[in-house]
Structures are given as structure tokens and as C-alpha cells.
Amino acid sequence: MVFLPVWDLNPLKRVRFQYVTVAIIALNIIIYVLFETNLVLHSPARFINALSLKPGDVAPFDSFLRHLPVQFRLVTYMFLHGSAWHLIGNMIFLFVFGDNVEDAMGHVRFAVFYLLCGAFAALVHSAMTLTPGAPLIGASGAISGVIGAYLMLHPNVRVWILVPIANLPFLPLRFSAAFVIGVWIVYQIANAIYLAKDATAWWAHIGGFVAGVLLVTVMKRPGVKLFDAATGV
Length: 233
Known about the structure:
By secondary structure, the protein is mainly alpha-helical. The chain has one domain (4-219): Rhomboid-like (Rhomboid-like fold). Helix content is 55%, strand content 9%. The chain has nine helices and three strands. Strands 1-2-3 form a three-stranded antiparallel beta sheet. Helix 5 packs across helix 6.
């Protein structure tokens, strides 16, 4: 982990509350607790195997409809997590960046945007992975889209982050969103190149990020400006 965002000092302007962001976080937590631990199911591995995405199973476009049940995994995979820390890390990123993107799009469009980013992230991962037999799980592809959209909307807003430092748990620092997200995406690209066989789906992060950057330009509300000059406090 290169850093962990904790706060962005960026108040909502158009919605009263980030209902969709909170609902997605709650849904991920509920699914993890009920179905991915031994608290309810005695074989969570079977549940994960049924709903995770196997990149080698993604059908070509011309046979997409005939393989539609498999393609539903382009959505279901993003609500599964491999561990509590995997879940917590993803949900913190979504909590920090999701509310303002939802504010810029509205509730319904943000929900659609989130799912589209996650699906595109899975497709990019499927095309680039060197291990097509390994299942893909996690919300990070969709959340990467949220991060990309946030960069396009609020590059100047100050974001508090926690940076792991030797002999210290974390060092709190504050930088512009453009700097924080810039470091984050460079880290993803570098790992995708040099750690191609790593278990982390780096290309899903990159694909989701690109989807978010592009989709926000057409899915934001009319009148919402890109590259907002506001810096927060």
C-alpha cells in the first residue's frame, strides 16, 4: 500500500447525502460478513467461486448473449473480497472519494457509473492478465473509476492521507488530489509492468481509472465543471 486516504475536506453541493456510496459500502460489508466468512456459510470458497470472474471465461462480443449468465460475473465479482483488510482498504477509498463523484452525477447515474467502471476494469484485466485461470474479485476496479472521476472533477482539493513510514504506524500528510491520485496511478502502472504475475489485479485498477476519467465527462450533471478550482480548507 503506497498510502491510505482518510479525508478530503470537500463538502457536498448538490445532494443532501451520498446514499449510493454508503449503500455500496454497506452491501460489500454485508456480503463479506454473511457469505465470505464462516459465520453463516460453511463453505465460502464455493460462493466466491460461483460469483468471481474468471478472465478466461469472458466470452467474445459476438457470443456475449449466449454466455450471459457468465457475464453477470462482470458485476458480481466487484462485491467480493479476499480478506477483511482487502474489504476495509477498498471501502475507505470509496468513502473518501465516492461522495463527491456521486454529488457531481446524482444518485442514479453514479450507481450506473460505478458498475460500468467495474465491468470495464474486469474486461481490461481479462485482456491483459498473464494468469487467466485465477479468479478476479474486489471492488478496486470500480473504485479506481471513482478515483479517476474525482481527479477530473476536483484536482485541487486537499486530501489527507496516511503514509506508512519505517518505525511509525502512519505519517499523516496533506496534498492536492492531483498529486495524491497522480502518485497512485503511477504506482498502479509501474506494478502492472514490473509485477505482471502478482496476485493483485493492477490492470483492473488501470482500466477502471481510464473508464472513470472518460465516463465522468458525459455522466456528470449539466453545469458541473471539470477541474474545479476549489482547494478546500
